[in-house]
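Appendix B. Chain record.
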Amino acid sequence: MQNWQVFGEGKTWKKPFHVIFAEVAKTYLKLLPSVKIIAITGSVGKTLTQNAVYAVLFQKYRVVAPDDNLDPTYRIPQTILKTKPWDNYLILEYGVEHPGDMDYYLSLAKPKIGVVTTIAPAHTKYLGDEGGVFEEKVKLVEALPKDGNAVLNADDKKVAQMAAKTRVKIYWYGQKAKNGIKISHFAQNLRVSKFRLHYGSQKATVYWKVVGKHQLTSAYAAATVGILSGLTLKQIAKGLSTTKVPEHRLNTVNARHINLLDDTYNSSPKAAQESINTLLQLSKNKQKIAVIGEMKDLGKLSHQAHALLGAKIGKTSINYLITIGKVAKIVSDSARKASFRGKLINLENTNQAISTIQKIAKKNALVLVKGSRHAHLERIVYGLQGKSTEVTCYHCGKLK
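C-alpha coordinates predicted for this chain:
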Protein backbone atom coordinates (compact mmCIF):
# COMPACT_ATOMS: atom_id res chain seq x y z
CA MET A 1 0.00 0.00 0.00
CA GLN A 2 1.25 3.48 -0.85
CA ASN A 3 2.50 5.55 2.12
CA TRP A 4 0.53 8.75 1.43
CA GLN A 5 2.22 10.62 4.30
CA VAL A 6 5.31 10.97 2.16
CA PHE A 7 3.40 13.42 -0.03
CA GLY A 8 3.00 15.81 2.89
CA GLU A 9 0.38 18.56 2.64
CA GLY A 10 -0.10 18.49 -1.11
CA LYS A 11 -3.62 18.33 -2.52
CA THR A 12 -5.21 14.89 -2.23
CA TRP A 13 -6.35 14.71 -5.85
CA LYS A 14 -2.77 15.25 -7.05
CA LYS A 15 -1.26 12.38 -5.04
CA PRO A 16 -2.10 9.55 -7.50
CA PHE A 17 -0.35 11.52 -10.25
CA HIS A 18 2.74 11.84 -8.03
CA VAL A 19 2.68 8.05 -7.56
CA ILE A 20 2.58 7.52 -11.32
CA PHE A 21 5.38 10.05 -11.83
CA ALA A 22 7.50 8.25 -9.22
CA GLU A 23 6.89 4.84 -10.79
CA VAL A 24 7.93 6.17 -14.20
CA ALA A 25 11.15 7.51 -12.66
CA LYS A 26 11.79 4.24 -10.86
CA THR A 27 11.40 2.26 -14.09
CA TYR A 28 13.57 4.71 -16.03
CA LEU A 29 16.36 4.40 -13.47
CA LYS A 30 16.64 0.69 -14.28
CA LEU A 31 17.86 1.74 -17.74
CA LEU A 32 20.82 3.57 -16.15
CA PRO A 33 22.86 0.78 -14.49
CA SER A 34 26.19 2.59 -14.86
CA VAL A 35 25.09 5.75 -13.03
CA LYS A 36 26.28 5.83 -9.39
CA ILE A 37 23.71 7.20 -6.96
CA ILE A 38 24.82 9.35 -4.03
CA ALA A 39 22.16 9.84 -1.36
CA ILE A 40 22.46 12.56 1.29
CA THR A 41 20.50 12.67 4.53
CA GLY A 42 20.74 14.38 7.91
CA SER A 43 18.87 16.81 10.13
CA VAL A 44 20.62 19.92 8.81
CA GLY A 45 22.94 20.83 5.94
CA LYS A 46 21.62 18.42 3.32
CA THR A 47 21.09 20.86 0.45
CA LEU A 48 24.41 22.68 0.91
CA THR A 49 26.15 19.30 1.08
CA GLN A 50 24.35 18.23 -2.09
CA ASN A 51 25.49 21.38 -3.89
CA ALA A 52 29.04 21.04 -2.61
CA VAL A 53 29.27 17.38 -3.68
CA TYR A 54 27.96 18.35 -7.11
CA ALA A 55 30.50 21.17 -7.47
CA VAL A 56 33.38 18.89 -6.47
CA LEU A 57 32.47 15.93 -8.68
CA PHE A 58 31.70 18.23 -11.61
CA GLN A 59 35.44 18.93 -11.86
CA LYS A 60 35.95 15.45 -13.30
CA TYR A 61 32.61 13.76 -14.01
CA ARG A 62 29.16 14.20 -15.52
CA VAL A 63 26.88 14.83 -12.56
CA VAL A 64 23.14 15.40 -12.06
CA ALA A 65 21.75 17.05 -8.91
CA PRO A 66 18.29 18.29 -7.84
CA ASP A 67 16.97 21.81 -8.06
CA ASP A 68 16.68 23.65 -4.74
CA ASN A 69 13.52 24.36 -2.74
CA LEU A 70 11.31 21.53 -3.95
CA ASP A 71 9.92 18.84 -1.66
CA PRO A 72 12.05 15.64 -1.87
CA THR A 73 8.95 13.60 -2.73
CA TYR A 74 8.71 15.40 -6.07
CA ARG A 75 12.37 16.35 -6.44
CA ILE A 76 13.74 12.81 -6.44
CA PRO A 77 11.65 11.51 -9.40
CA GLN A 78 12.22 14.78 -11.26
CA THR A 79 16.00 14.51 -10.84
CA ILE A 80 16.04 10.86 -11.88
CA LEU A 81 14.25 11.76 -15.11
CA LYS A 82 16.85 14.45 -15.86
CA THR A 83 19.63 11.86 -15.80
CA LYS A 84 21.17 10.61 -19.06
CA PRO A 85 22.80 7.22 -19.72
CA TRP A 86 26.20 8.87 -20.13
CA ASP A 87 26.10 10.61 -16.73
CA ASN A 88 28.44 9.29 -14.03
CA TYR A 89 26.77 10.38 -10.81
CA LEU A 90 23.22 11.11 -9.67
CA ILE A 91 22.98 13.03 -6.38
CA LEU A 92 19.73 12.80 -4.40
CA GLU A 93 18.66 14.39 -1.13
CA TYR A 94 16.69 12.09 1.19
CA GLY A 95 14.92 14.47 3.57
CA VAL A 96 12.64 12.50 5.87
CA GLU A 97 9.77 13.91 7.94
CA HIS A 98 7.58 10.86 8.70
CA PRO A 99 8.22 7.21 9.62
CA GLY A 100 8.54 5.27 6.39
CA ASP A 101 9.75 8.19 4.26
CA MET A 102 13.23 6.69 3.91
CA ASP A 103 11.78 3.33 2.87
CA TYR A 104 9.87 5.11 0.12
CA TYR A 105 12.94 6.97 -1.17
CA LEU A 106 15.02 3.79 -1.10
CA SER A 107 12.30 1.99 -3.08
CA LEU A 108 12.79 4.60 -5.82
CA ALA A 109 16.57 4.72 -5.87
CA LYS A 110 19.10 2.56 -4.03
CA PRO A 111 22.37 4.51 -3.59
CA LYS A 112 25.94 3.30 -3.92
CA ILE A 113 27.23 6.05 -1.64
CA GLY A 114 25.40 7.32 1.45
CA VAL A 115 26.32 10.64 3.09
CA VAL A 116 25.01 11.58 6.55
CA THR A 117 25.46 15.10 7.95
CA THR A 118 23.97 15.30 11.46
CA ILE A 119 21.28 13.78 13.64
CA ALA A 120 19.33 16.27 15.75
CA PRO A 121 15.71 16.94 16.79
CA ALA A 122 13.72 17.83 13.66
CA HIS A 123 10.22 16.78 12.58
CA THR A 124 9.81 15.17 16.00
CA LYS A 125 6.06 15.80 15.74
CA TYR A 126 6.09 12.72 13.52
CA LEU A 127 9.37 10.97 14.42
CA GLY A 128 8.94 11.24 18.20
CA ASP A 129 12.39 12.25 19.39
CA GLU A 130 16.04 12.25 18.37
CA GLY A 131 16.04 8.45 18.60
CA GLY A 132 13.21 8.32 16.08
CA VAL A 133 15.15 10.62 13.77
CA PHE A 134 18.13 8.26 14.02
CA GLU A 135 16.06 5.14 13.36
CA GLU A 136 14.59 6.61 10.17
CA LYS A 137 17.80 8.05 8.75
CA VAL A 138 20.02 5.05 9.59
CA LYS A 139 18.00 3.05 7.06
CA LEU A 140 20.06 4.75 4.35
CA VAL A 141 23.31 3.33 5.69
CA GLU A 142 21.75 -0.08 6.27
CA ALA A 143 20.56 -0.22 2.65
CA LEU A 144 23.97 0.36 1.06
CA PRO A 145 25.27 -2.56 -1.06
CA LYS A 146 28.37 -4.49 0.01
CA ASP A 147 30.51 -2.65 -2.51
CA GLY A 148 29.11 0.73 -1.45
CA ASN A 149 30.53 3.44 0.79
CA ALA A 150 29.21 5.35 3.79
CA VAL A 151 30.46 8.91 4.30
CA LEU A 152 29.86 9.69 7.97
CA ASN A 153 30.38 12.71 10.22
CA ALA A 154 32.85 11.73 12.95
CA ASP A 155 31.97 14.88 14.92
CA ASP A 156 28.33 13.84 15.44
CA LYS A 157 27.82 11.14 18.10
CA LYS A 158 24.59 9.82 16.61
CA VAL A 159 26.01 9.65 13.09
CA ALA A 160 29.10 7.86 14.44
CA GLN A 161 26.79 5.18 15.88
CA MET A 162 25.67 4.35 12.35
CA ALA A 163 29.00 2.61 11.72
CA ALA A 164 27.70 -0.39 13.67
CA LYS A 165 24.73 -0.65 11.30
CA THR A 166 26.65 -1.34 8.10
CA ARG A 167 29.42 -3.54 6.67
CA VAL A 168 30.40 -1.20 3.87
CA LYS A 169 33.64 0.76 3.86
CA ILE A 170 33.28 3.94 5.86
CA TYR A 171 34.90 7.24 4.97
CA TRP A 172 34.91 9.43 8.07
CA TYR A 173 34.96 13.21 7.85
CA GLY A 174 35.16 16.11 10.31
CA GLN A 175 37.62 17.32 12.92
CA LYS A 176 37.68 13.97 14.72
CA ALA A 177 38.21 11.93 11.56
CA LYS A 178 41.56 10.18 11.43
CA ASN A 179 43.52 10.11 8.16
CA GLY A 180 40.85 12.16 6.41
CA ILE A 181 40.53 15.67 5.03
CA LYS A 182 41.59 18.39 7.46
CA ILE A 183 40.56 22.05 7.43
CA SER A 184 42.56 24.91 8.94
CA HIS A 185 42.94 28.71 8.83
CA PHE A 186 39.19 29.38 8.69
CA ALA A 187 38.21 33.04 8.32
CA GLN A 188 34.97 34.69 7.24
CA ASN A 189 33.30 37.98 6.53
CA LEU A 190 29.82 38.88 5.28
CA ARG A 191 30.64 37.84 1.71
CA VAL A 192 32.90 34.80 1.82
CA SER A 193 34.75 32.28 3.95
CA LYS A 194 38.30 31.16 3.37
CA PHE A 195 40.04 28.04 4.60
CA ARG A 196 42.80 25.60 3.78
CA LEU A 197 42.32 21.92 2.92
CA HIS A 198 44.89 19.31 3.92
CA TYR A 199 45.10 15.70 2.79
CA GLY A 200 48.33 13.85 3.42
CA SER A 201 51.06 16.14 2.11
CA GLN A 202 48.66 18.04 -0.18
CA LYS A 203 47.35 21.54 0.58
CA ALA A 204 44.83 23.76 -1.22
CA THR A 205 42.99 26.99 -0.42
CA VAL A 206 39.21 27.35 -0.75
CA TYR A 207 37.22 30.56 -1.17
CA TRP A 208 33.83 29.35 0.05
CA LYS A 209 30.79 31.46 -0.82
CA VAL A 210 29.19 30.38 2.43
CA VAL A 211 29.11 31.97 5.90
CA GLY A 212 28.87 30.11 9.19
CA LYS A 213 31.66 27.98 10.60
CA HIS A 214 29.21 25.13 11.23
CA GLN A 215 28.66 24.86 7.47
CA LEU A 216 32.16 23.46 7.09
CA THR A 217 30.45 20.12 7.75
CA SER A 218 29.24 20.26 4.13
CA ALA A 219 32.73 21.10 2.88
CA TYR A 220 34.22 18.19 4.82
CA ALA A 221 31.59 15.80 3.44
CA ALA A 222 31.94 16.94 -0.18
CA ALA A 223 35.74 16.86 -0.04
CA THR A 224 35.59 13.31 1.33
CA VAL A 225 33.29 12.21 -1.50
CA GLY A 226 35.83 13.78 -3.84
CA ILE A 227 38.67 11.75 -2.33
CA LEU A 228 36.81 8.44 -2.60
CA SER A 229 35.92 9.34 -6.21
CA GLY A 230 39.54 9.85 -7.22
CA LEU A 231 39.84 13.65 -7.37
CA THR A 232 42.98 15.58 -6.44
CA LEU A 233 42.91 18.08 -3.60
CA LYS A 234 43.27 20.95 -6.09
CA GLN A 235 40.23 19.72 -8.01
CA ILE A 236 38.29 19.44 -4.76
CA ALA A 237 39.27 22.96 -3.69
CA LYS A 238 38.29 24.38 -7.06
CA GLY A 239 34.93 22.64 -6.86
CA LEU A 240 34.20 23.84 -3.33
CA SER A 241 35.01 27.39 -4.40
CA THR A 242 32.22 27.20 -7.02
CA THR A 243 29.57 25.74 -4.69
CA LYS A 244 26.12 27.24 -5.20
CA VAL A 245 24.71 28.63 -1.96
CA PRO A 246 21.09 27.44 -1.47
CA GLU A 247 18.55 30.25 -1.38
CA HIS A 248 17.21 31.37 2.04
CA ARG A 249 19.80 29.27 3.87
CA LEU A 250 21.97 31.74 5.76
CA ASN A 251 22.51 33.95 2.72
CA THR A 252 23.96 37.42 3.21
CA VAL A 253 21.64 39.99 1.66
CA ASN A 254 21.94 43.77 1.33
CA ALA A 255 18.87 45.76 2.32
CA ARG A 256 19.60 49.44 1.84
CA HIS A 257 21.72 50.51 4.84
CA ILE A 258 21.67 47.16 6.69
CA ASN A 259 22.85 43.57 6.10
CA LEU A 260 20.59 40.55 6.47
CA LEU A 261 21.32 36.92 7.20
CA ASP A 262 18.43 35.30 5.33
CA ASP A 263 17.91 31.89 6.95
CA THR A 264 14.19 31.60 6.33
CA TYR A 265 13.94 28.31 4.44
CA ASN A 266 13.46 26.24 7.58
CA SER A 267 14.34 26.02 11.26
CA SER A 268 15.14 23.42 13.90
CA PRO A 269 16.79 23.72 17.34
CA LYS A 270 20.32 22.94 16.15
CA ALA A 271 20.04 25.06 13.02
CA ALA A 272 18.64 28.03 14.95
CA GLN A 273 21.45 27.90 17.50
CA GLU A 274 24.10 27.76 14.76
CA SER A 275 22.48 30.74 13.04
CA ILE A 276 22.65 32.73 16.27
CA ASN A 277 26.33 31.78 16.61
CA THR A 278 26.97 33.02 13.08
CA LEU A 279 25.20 36.31 13.80
CA LEU A 280 27.51 36.82 16.78
CA GLN A 281 30.64 35.82 14.86
CA LEU A 282 29.95 38.22 11.99
CA SER A 283 28.66 41.22 13.88
CA LYS A 284 31.57 42.45 15.99
CA ASN A 285 31.15 46.17 16.72
CA LYS A 286 27.81 46.16 14.85
CA GLN A 287 24.24 46.33 16.02
CA LYS A 288 22.87 42.78 16.24
CA ILE A 289 19.19 42.02 15.65
CA ALA A 290 17.73 38.50 15.74
CA VAL A 291 14.27 37.91 14.25
CA ILE A 292 13.01 34.49 15.27
CA GLY A 293 9.92 32.62 14.08
CA GLU A 294 8.44 29.34 15.19
CA MET A 295 10.32 26.06 14.74
CA LYS A 296 7.57 23.85 13.30
CA ASP A 297 6.85 20.12 13.55
CA LEU A 298 8.60 19.55 16.90
CA GLY A 299 5.53 18.06 18.58
CA LYS A 300 5.94 17.44 22.32
CA LEU A 301 9.48 18.86 22.20
CA SER A 302 8.31 22.25 20.91
CA HIS A 303 7.99 24.21 24.14
CA GLN A 304 11.26 22.94 25.56
CA ALA A 305 13.15 23.57 22.31
CA HIS A 306 11.93 27.17 22.04
CA ALA A 307 12.67 27.79 25.71
CA LEU A 308 16.22 26.43 25.39
CA LEU A 309 16.86 28.64 22.37
CA GLY A 310 15.65 31.65 24.33
CA ALA A 311 17.84 30.78 27.30
CA LYS A 312 20.89 30.65 25.06
CA ILE A 313 20.02 33.93 23.35
CA GLY A 314 19.55 35.47 26.80
CA LYS A 315 23.25 35.04 27.50
CA THR A 316 24.42 36.75 24.29
CA SER A 317 25.22 40.34 23.34
CA ILE A 318 22.38 40.59 20.80
CA ASN A 319 20.83 44.07 20.91
CA TYR A 320 17.27 43.23 19.83
CA LEU A 321 15.39 39.94 19.89
CA ILE A 322 12.22 40.11 17.80
CA THR A 323 9.90 37.10 17.88
CA ILE A 324 6.97 36.52 15.51
CA GLY A 325 3.82 34.79 16.79
CA LYS A 326 2.63 33.06 19.96
CA VAL A 327 4.91 30.03 19.86
CA ALA A 328 8.03 32.07 19.13
CA LYS A 329 7.15 34.27 22.14
CA ILE A 330 8.36 31.36 24.26
CA VAL A 331 11.85 32.27 23.00
CA SER A 332 11.60 35.88 24.19
CA ASP A 333 10.01 34.88 27.52
CA SER A 334 12.86 32.47 28.14
CA ALA A 335 15.47 35.06 27.14
CA ARG A 336 13.93 37.47 29.65
CA LYS A 337 14.23 34.87 32.41
CA ALA A 338 17.90 34.42 31.42
CA SER A 339 18.46 38.14 32.09
CA PHE A 340 18.76 39.16 28.44
CA ARG A 341 20.36 42.62 28.34
CA GLY A 342 18.99 43.63 24.95
CA LYS A 343 15.46 44.68 24.06
CA LEU A 344 12.65 42.16 23.54
CA ILE A 345 9.88 42.69 21.01
CA ASN A 346 7.10 40.20 20.24
CA LEU A 347 5.04 40.81 17.11
CA GLU A 348 2.09 39.13 15.42
CA ASN A 349 3.13 39.21 11.78
CA THR A 350 5.85 39.92 9.25
CA ASN A 351 4.51 43.34 8.25
CA GLN A 352 4.97 44.53 11.82
CA ALA A 353 8.49 43.12 11.78
CA ILE A 354 9.42 45.02 8.61
CA SER A 355 8.29 48.38 10.00
CA THR A 356 9.89 47.72 13.40
CA ILE A 357 13.27 46.81 11.93
CA GLN A 358 13.19 49.87 9.69
CA LYS A 359 12.76 52.02 12.81
CA ILE A 360 15.37 50.43 15.08
CA ALA A 361 18.12 49.26 12.71
CA LYS A 362 21.21 51.47 12.61
CA LYS A 363 23.48 51.81 9.59
CA ASN A 364 25.42 48.57 8.92
CA ALA A 365 23.35 46.62 11.45
CA LEU A 366 23.32 42.85 10.98
CA VAL A 367 19.87 41.28 11.09
CA LEU A 368 19.32 37.52 11.29
CA VAL A 369 15.89 36.32 10.08
CA LYS A 370 15.30 32.68 11.06
CA GLY A 371 12.13 30.57 11.07
CA SER A 372 10.40 27.54 9.58
CA ARG A 373 9.23 27.83 6.00
CA HIS A 374 5.54 27.71 6.99
CA ALA A 375 6.02 31.07 8.75
CA HIS A 376 7.19 32.67 5.47
CA LEU A 377 9.66 35.00 7.17
CA GLU A 378 11.25 35.57 3.78
CA ARG A 379 8.57 38.25 3.52
CA ILE A 380 10.63 40.26 6.02
CA VAL A 381 13.72 39.94 3.84
CA TYR A 382 11.83 41.01 0.73
CA GLY A 383 10.12 43.89 2.51
CA LEU A 384 13.37 45.28 3.88
CA GLN A 385 14.78 45.16 0.36
CA GLY A 386 11.83 47.14 -0.95
CA LYS A 387 10.44 44.17 -2.89
CA SER A 388 6.97 42.64 -3.02
CA THR A 389 6.26 40.48 0.03
CA GLU A 390 4.18 37.97 -1.95
CA VAL A 391 5.63 34.48 -1.61
CA THR A 392 5.04 31.14 -3.29
CA CYS A 393 3.36 28.45 -1.20
CA TYR A 394 5.76 25.56 -0.64
CA HIS A 395 3.05 22.95 -1.33
CA CYS A 396 0.50 24.47 -3.71
CA GLY A 397 2.83 26.72 -5.73
CA LYS A 398 0.42 29.69 -5.51
CA LEU A 399 1.33 33.25 -4.49
CA LYS A 400 0.27 34.19 -0.98
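Further analysis of this model is presented in Appendix C.
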